[in-house]
Amino acid sequence: MAMTDVLSAEDIKKAVGAFSAESFNYKKFFEMVGLKKKSPEDVKKVFHILDKDRSGFIEEEELKFVLKGFTPDGRDLSDKETKALLAAGDKDGDGKIGADGM
């Protein structure tokens, strides 16, 4: 399954472009790609696309490349941005995000 099976390619392009500099705001990004309007089932589909190692979790190493999960030309997140995103989604403090954290 591709990200564009769930989200609009145009919305993805706009959102990734908006955060091409080191200013990633995950709340605004998820809103811009249309994820906030999606059903819980669609959000889980996006989660599984981003869960590259199929562990059932998105770990810090995967989060660094989260924008590439939306489009191949997305940039890598900085360590600071990655840690902020992890802190926001890691509900139980285990260093990874489960499907319920999105």
TrEMBL record:
Q: Which Pfam family, any one, appears in the UniProt record?
A: EF-hand_7
Give start and end of each EF-hand domain: 38-73
SUPFAM superfamilies found in the cross-reference section: EF-hand (SSF47473)
Alphabetized UniProt keyword annotations: Calcium, Metal-binding, Repeat
Q: Which InterPro entries match?
A: EF-hand-dom_pair, EF_Hand_1_Ca_BS, EF_hand_dom, Parvalbumin
Q: Does the keyword Metal-binding apply?
A: yes
Recorded GO cellular component terms are: cytoplasm
> Please, which domain of life does this record's source organism belong to?
Eukaryota
Cross-referenced PANTHER family = PARVALBUMIN ALPHA (PTHR11653)
Q: What's this protein's name?
A: Parvalbumin
Q: Where does Ca(2+) bind?
A: 51, 53, 55, 57, 62, 90, 92, 94, 96
Family assignment from sequence similarity: Belongs to the parvalbumin family.
One GO MF term = calcium ion binding
Q: What does this protein do?
A: In muscle, parvalbumin is thought to be involved in relaxation after contraction. It binds two calcium ions.
